[in-house]
Amino acid sequence: MRYQITGKHIDVGEALQTHVKDELGAAVQKYAERPTDASVIFSKSAHEYVCEATVHLSTGLTATAKAHETEIYAAFDSCCEKMEKQLRRYKRRLKDHHKDRTAPVELMGASSYILAGGTDDEESEPETLQPIIVAEMETKIPSLTVGEAVMQMELAGAPVLVFRNEKKDGVNVVYRREDGNIGWIDP
Protein backbone atom coordinates (compact mmCIF):
# COMPACT_ATOMS: atom_id res chain seq x y z
CA MET A 1 0.00 0.00 0.00
CA ARG A 2 1.26 3.48 -0.86
CA TYR A 3 1.24 6.09 1.90
CA GLN A 4 1.15 9.87 1.61
CA ILE A 5 1.71 11.37 5.05
CA THR A 6 1.77 15.16 5.16
CA GLY A 7 1.35 18.00 7.59
CA LYS A 8 -0.22 21.40 7.05
CA HIS A 9 2.21 23.80 8.71
CA ILE A 10 3.41 20.90 10.88
CA ASP A 11 6.64 18.96 10.58
CA VAL A 12 5.79 15.25 10.39
CA GLY A 13 8.87 13.39 11.65
CA GLU A 14 10.10 9.91 10.76
CA ALA A 15 8.85 8.42 14.04
CA LEU A 16 5.29 9.60 13.40
CA GLN A 17 5.42 8.40 9.78
CA THR A 18 6.59 4.95 10.90
CA HIS A 19 3.85 4.84 13.56
CA VAL A 20 1.21 5.78 10.95
CA LYS A 21 2.41 3.15 8.46
CA ASP A 22 2.51 0.40 11.08
CA GLU A 23 -0.80 1.13 12.81
CA LEU A 24 -2.86 2.10 9.75
CA GLY A 25 -1.38 -0.75 7.72
CA ALA A 26 -2.34 -3.27 10.40
CA ALA A 27 -5.87 -1.88 10.77
CA VAL A 28 -6.54 -1.74 7.04
CA GLN A 29 -4.97 -5.12 6.26
CA LYS A 30 -7.18 -6.73 8.90
CA TYR A 31 -10.43 -5.77 7.14
CA ALA A 32 -9.56 -4.89 3.53
CA GLU A 33 -7.87 -7.44 1.29
CA ARG A 34 -6.37 -5.10 -1.30
CA PRO A 35 -5.96 -1.50 -0.16
CA THR A 36 -4.24 0.59 -2.85
CA ASP A 37 -3.20 3.81 -1.15
CA ALA A 38 -3.67 5.89 1.97
CA SER A 39 -3.44 9.61 2.57
CA VAL A 40 -2.97 10.98 6.09
CA ILE A 41 -2.95 14.73 6.71
CA PHE A 42 -2.06 16.32 10.04
CA SER A 43 -2.97 19.92 10.85
CA LYS A 44 -3.44 22.11 13.89
CA SER A 45 -6.69 23.86 14.81
CA ALA A 46 -6.27 26.17 17.81
CA HIS A 47 -4.88 23.95 20.60
CA GLU A 48 -5.91 20.64 18.97
CA TYR A 49 -4.22 18.47 16.37
CA VAL A 50 -6.41 17.23 13.54
CA CYS A 51 -5.77 13.98 11.70
CA GLU A 52 -7.63 13.20 8.45
CA ALA A 53 -7.12 9.79 6.85
CA THR A 54 -8.40 8.53 3.50
CA VAL A 55 -7.93 4.94 2.31
CA HIS A 56 -8.73 3.90 -1.26
CA LEU A 57 -9.65 0.24 -1.68
CA SER A 58 -9.10 -1.76 -4.87
CA THR A 59 -12.88 -2.16 -5.20
CA GLY A 60 -13.09 1.57 -5.87
CA LEU A 61 -14.63 2.44 -2.52
CA THR A 62 -13.04 5.06 -0.28
CA ALA A 63 -13.02 5.20 3.52
CA THR A 64 -12.32 8.44 5.40
CA ALA A 65 -11.92 9.29 9.07
CA LYS A 66 -11.14 12.46 10.99
CA ALA A 67 -10.21 13.04 14.63
CA HIS A 68 -9.25 15.95 16.93
CA GLU A 69 -7.04 15.53 20.02
CA THR A 70 -4.64 17.65 22.05
CA GLU A 71 -1.68 15.36 21.19
CA ILE A 72 -0.69 14.46 17.62
CA TYR A 73 -0.24 10.72 18.29
CA ALA A 74 -3.59 10.58 20.12
CA ALA A 75 -5.25 12.32 17.14
CA PHE A 76 -3.87 9.68 14.79
CA ASP A 77 -4.79 6.79 17.10
CA SER A 78 -8.36 8.08 17.39
CA CYS A 79 -8.56 8.54 13.60
CA CYS A 80 -7.16 5.04 13.02
CA GLU A 81 -9.75 3.61 15.44
CA LYS A 82 -12.56 5.29 13.47
CA MET A 83 -11.11 3.99 10.19
CA GLU A 84 -10.91 0.46 11.56
CA LYS A 85 -14.54 0.67 12.73
CA GLN A 86 -15.69 1.80 9.27
CA LEU A 87 -13.76 -0.95 7.51
CA ARG A 88 -15.13 -3.55 9.94
CA ARG A 89 -18.69 -2.40 9.11
CA TYR A 90 -17.86 -2.46 5.39
CA LYS A 91 -16.56 -6.02 5.57
CA ARG A 92 -19.54 -7.15 7.67
CA ARG A 93 -21.97 -5.69 5.13
CA LEU A 94 -20.23 -7.47 2.29
CA LYS A 95 -20.48 -10.75 4.18
CA ASP A 96 -24.11 -10.08 5.14
CA HIS A 97 -25.06 -9.57 1.50
CA HIS A 98 -23.15 -12.74 0.49
CA LYS A 99 -21.52 -10.95 -2.37
CA ASP A 100 -18.07 -9.66 -2.94
CA ARG A 101 -17.37 -7.19 -5.70
CA THR A 102 -14.74 -8.87 -7.85
CA ALA A 103 -14.39 -6.18 -10.50
CA PRO A 104 -13.32 -2.65 -9.61
CA VAL A 105 -15.97 0.06 -9.53
CA GLU A 106 -16.37 1.66 -12.94
CA LEU A 107 -15.89 5.44 -12.83
CA MET A 108 -17.41 7.98 -15.19
CA GLY A 109 -15.89 11.45 -15.59
CA ALA A 110 -17.95 14.55 -14.86
CA SER A 111 -17.45 18.28 -14.33
CA SER A 112 -17.86 19.77 -10.88
CA TYR A 113 -18.35 23.50 -10.30
CA ILE A 114 -18.12 25.79 -7.30
CA LEU A 115 -20.59 28.67 -7.55
CA ALA A 116 -20.27 32.03 -5.80
CA GLY A 117 -22.60 32.40 -2.85
CA GLY A 118 -25.16 35.17 -2.58
CA THR A 119 -24.43 38.40 -0.76
CA ASP A 120 -25.59 38.97 2.79
CA ASP A 121 -27.02 42.34 1.78
CA GLU A 122 -30.72 41.58 1.28
CA GLU A 123 -31.46 44.98 -0.28
CA SER A 124 -29.20 44.49 -3.30
CA GLU A 125 -30.64 42.62 -6.24
CA PRO A 126 -28.38 40.39 -8.35
CA GLU A 127 -27.71 41.78 -11.81
CA THR A 128 -28.39 38.42 -13.41
CA LEU A 129 -29.87 35.09 -12.37
CA GLN A 130 -26.88 33.25 -13.85
CA PRO A 131 -24.58 32.00 -11.06
CA ILE A 132 -20.94 33.03 -11.06
CA ILE A 133 -18.58 30.05 -11.43
CA VAL A 134 -15.68 30.33 -8.99
CA ALA A 135 -13.92 27.06 -9.83
CA GLU A 136 -14.28 24.12 -12.21
CA MET A 137 -12.93 20.67 -11.40
CA GLU A 138 -13.02 17.14 -12.75
CA THR A 139 -14.78 14.54 -10.59
CA LYS A 140 -15.57 10.84 -10.92
CA ILE A 141 -19.03 9.28 -10.64
CA PRO A 142 -18.91 5.61 -9.55
CA SER A 143 -21.13 2.89 -10.97
CA LEU A 144 -22.64 1.18 -7.90
CA THR A 145 -25.74 -0.57 -6.60
CA VAL A 146 -27.92 1.45 -4.21
CA GLY A 147 -26.63 -0.53 -1.22
CA GLU A 148 -23.02 0.07 -2.23
CA ALA A 149 -23.75 3.77 -2.73
CA VAL A 150 -25.16 4.06 0.79
CA MET A 151 -22.14 2.18 2.13
CA GLN A 152 -19.75 4.46 0.18
CA MET A 153 -21.54 7.57 1.44
CA GLU A 154 -21.24 6.35 5.04
CA LEU A 155 -17.59 5.31 4.60
CA ALA A 156 -16.74 8.75 3.19
CA GLY A 157 -18.77 10.53 5.87
CA ALA A 158 -20.43 12.53 3.09
CA PRO A 159 -23.94 14.01 3.31
CA VAL A 160 -24.70 13.15 -0.33
CA LEU A 161 -23.39 10.82 -3.07
CA VAL A 162 -24.12 10.97 -6.79
CA PHE A 163 -23.68 7.59 -8.53
CA ARG A 164 -24.63 5.68 -11.65
CA ASN A 165 -27.10 2.93 -10.74
CA GLU A 166 -25.75 -0.40 -12.03
CA LYS A 167 -29.23 -1.93 -12.22
CA LYS A 168 -31.00 0.86 -14.13
CA ASP A 169 -27.97 2.54 -15.76
CA GLY A 170 -29.13 6.03 -14.74
CA VAL A 171 -27.66 8.69 -12.49
CA ASN A 172 -29.04 8.47 -8.92
CA VAL A 173 -28.45 10.30 -5.64
CA VAL A 174 -28.40 9.04 -2.05
CA TYR A 175 -28.35 11.53 0.82
CA ARG A 176 -28.68 11.72 4.57
CA ARG A 177 -32.01 13.22 5.63
CA GLU A 178 -32.45 15.54 8.62
CA ASP A 179 -34.34 12.79 10.46
CA GLY A 180 -31.25 10.51 10.21
CA ASN A 181 -32.63 8.23 7.49
CA ILE A 182 -31.16 7.83 4.01
CA GLY A 183 -32.95 9.32 1.01
CA TRP A 184 -32.63 7.94 -2.55
CA ILE A 185 -33.44 9.92 -5.69
CA ASP A 186 -34.04 7.76 -8.77
CA PRO A 187 -35.14 9.98 -11.71
- CATH topology of the largest domain, which one? Double Stranded RNA Binding Domain
CATH H level of the largest domain: which superfamily?
Ribosome hibernation promotion factor-like
Q: How many helices does DSSP assign?
A: 3
| Number of distinct beta strands | 9
What is the top-level CATH class of the largest domain?
A: Alpha Beta
Compute the number of structural domains.
2
Shape: globular
Helical content class? 25-40%
Round the Cα radius of gyration to an integer and report it: 19 Å
- What number is the mean pLDDT? 82
Q: What fraction of the residues are assigned to beta strands by DSSP?
A: 35-45%
List the secondary-structure elements in sequence, H or E.
EHEEEHEEHEEE
* Class computed from helices, strands and strand pairing: alpha+beta
Q: State the CATH architecture of the largest domain.
A: 2-Layer Sandwich
Main beta sheet, described?
5 strands, mixed
Low-confidence stretches: none
Widest beta sheet: strand line-up:
5-6-7-8-9
The end-to-end span amounts to 38 Å
Subunit structure: Interacts with 100S ribosomes. Associates exclusively with 100S ribosomes, which are dimers of 70S ribosomes.
Protein name: Ribosome hibernation promoting factor
Main location: cytoplasm
GO molecular function: ribosomal small subunit binding
